[in-house]
């Protein structure tokens, strides 16, 4: 078999590192690495590029070009820097692109990859949250295959395979509930970014970890699911499941509910997307049902986690609401990480932006998405 070529956008992040780990467990010659991109972590990017014999290494940070060039001196690896260089690297034809840049910064490079056709392993949920219709239109126009890496959506994708879509009643997204699942609201008001980032089950990047604590991550995932699986708002359920073993479920009209289970390890959905339609063996922990003892489920508390209600509102409003919710959330999250606003202020700021920009038309081009994103951020301005 010919080796598959892979580019990893966001190679130095949590998903990027796990992706390279998965590649390291595949048979020799199964994959070749084309482009690896990062931003601030030049030492790691250079190490990854050397180890995996990448053709090109790119940092999004223009000011770090020299550092990267120096770190890769004596190799044949090409070096580039800046936002446009990331987009150019993403547009090199490959069999699989892992889209794992965090935030809306991932949209333009991922769209560039889509335009090559090929497989898009999508970790960057913001692409669908901000630009769902645009993104799916581009996938269709260029014959790209979209495979969700987000564990919940990957679970649903696996469950739906081979089943009649008309028979689906709803999808049930599971949520761990994060570190504050049982906390009182007053106590949540005073937490710092450090406490909020300590996720009980998953090891992830800083921003998505805090989004899990506020359940804004689940809010984004509800909108992601709406686009990915073409669902009506009422077909999207959320249930808190603290053990993170059931990764999500599909409820069929005949009363059957099908689930995908596994240990909370992102390498599983990553490997699924990289090796699809095959499944390769992976040295991960095996679920030991006798030791699991029990799996719990509870309804999310929308008073303590208003993000879920805001997502419902965005699902109902449609149009630009996803882009507004995401842009406002990213700005509010930056403010929280920097210590300028409190944990509970984030949802209030997002709601204010959604009020101010309600009814804005759906952005169907990249610059329109970025325009709405900018306006939402300006309203939040923490
Ligand atoms: P990280 O913060 O760990 O990594 C983000 C990556 O993006 C890094 O490589 C970072 O480079 C790079 N980056 C940051 N800013 C920019 C920018 N402006 N332009 C280009 N590149 C940039 O994030 P995660 O790996 O946790 O998440 C990545 C995406 O995957 C997110 O959209 C997240 O929601 C999604 N996801 C993540 C999961 C997880 O388990 N981590 C699970 C499901 C989805 P550097 O570090 O060098 O600065
Ligand atoms: Mg997820």
Strand order of the largest sheet: 4-3-2-1-5-6-7
Number of strands: 11
Query: What string gives the helices and strands in order?
Result: EHEHEHEHEHEHEHEHHHHEEEHHHHHH
The helix content, as a percent range, equals 40-55%
Ions, cofactors and other ligands present here are: NADPH dihydro-nicotinamide-adenine-dinucleotide phosphate, magnesium ion
- Sheet with the most strands, sense and barrel status: 7 strands, parallel
Low-confidence regions:
none
Q: Counting H and I runs of at least 4 residues, what is the number of helices?
A: 17
Percent of residues in β-strands: 15-25%
Provide the residue-averaged pLDDT: 97
How far apart are the first and last residues' alpha carbons, in Å?
53 Å
Name the structural class.
Answer: alpha/beta
How does the overall form come out from the CA principal axes?
A: globular
Query: What is the rounded Rg?
Result: 20 Å
GO molecular function: 1-deoxy-D-xylulose-5-phosphate reductoisomerase activity; isomerase activity; manganese ion binding; NADPH binding
Domain DXP reductoisomerase C-terminal: 261-378
Pathway: Isoprenoid biosynthesis; isopentenyl diphosphate biosynthesis via DXP pathway; isopentenyl diphosphate from 1-deoxy-D-xylulose 5-phosphate: step 1/6
Keywords: Isomerase, Isoprene biosynthesis, Magnesium, Manganese, Metal-binding, NADP, Oxidoreductase
């Amino acid at each position: 078999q010919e080796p598959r070529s892979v580019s990893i956008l966001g190679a130095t992040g949590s998903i990027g590192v796990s992706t390279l780990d998965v590649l390291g467990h595949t048979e020799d010659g199964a994959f070749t690495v084309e482009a690896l991109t990062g931003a601030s972590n030049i030492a790691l990017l250079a190490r990854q590029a050397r180890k995996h014999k990448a053709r090109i290494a790119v940092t999004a940070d223009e000011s770090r070009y020299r550092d990267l060039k120096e770190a890769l001196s004596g190799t044949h690896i090409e070096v580039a820097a800046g936002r446009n260089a990331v987009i150019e690297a993403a547009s090199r034809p490959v069999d699989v692109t892992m889209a794992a840049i965090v935030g809306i910064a991932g949209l333009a490079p991922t769209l560039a990859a889509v335009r090559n056709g090929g497989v898009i392993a999508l970790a960057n949920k913001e692409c669908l949250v901000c630009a769902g219709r645009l993104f799916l239109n581009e996938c269709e126009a260029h014959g790209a295959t979209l495979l969700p890496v987000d564990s919940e959506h990957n679970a649903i994708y696996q469950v739906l395979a081979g089943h009649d879509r008309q028979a689906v009643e709803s999808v049930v997204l599971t949520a761990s509930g994060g570190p504050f699942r049982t906390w009182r609201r007053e106590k949540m008001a005073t937490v710092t970014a450090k406490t909020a980032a300590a996720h009980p089950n998953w090891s992830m990047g800083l921003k998505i970890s805090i989004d899990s604590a506020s359940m804004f991550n689940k809010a984004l995932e509800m909108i992601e699911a709406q686009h990915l699986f073409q669902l009506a708002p009422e077909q999207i359920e959320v249930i808190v499941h603290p053990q993170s073993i059931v990764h999500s479920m599909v409820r069929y009209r005949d009363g059957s509910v099908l689930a995908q289970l596994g240990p909370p390890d992102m390498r599983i959905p990553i490997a699924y997307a990289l090796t699809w339609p095959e499944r390769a063996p992976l040295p991960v922990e095996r679920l030991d049902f006798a030791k699991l003892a029990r799996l719990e489920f509870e309804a999310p508390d929308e008073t303590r986690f208003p993000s879920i209600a805001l997502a419902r509102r965005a699902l109902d409003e449609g149009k630009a609401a996803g882009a507004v919710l995401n842009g406002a959330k990213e700005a509010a999250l930056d403010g929280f990480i920097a210590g300028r606003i409190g944990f509970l202020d984030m949802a209030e700021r997002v709601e204010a932006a959604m009020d101010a920009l309600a009814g804005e038309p759906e952005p169907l081009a990249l610059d329109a998405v970025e325009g709405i994103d900018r306006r939402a951020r300006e309203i939040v301005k923490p």
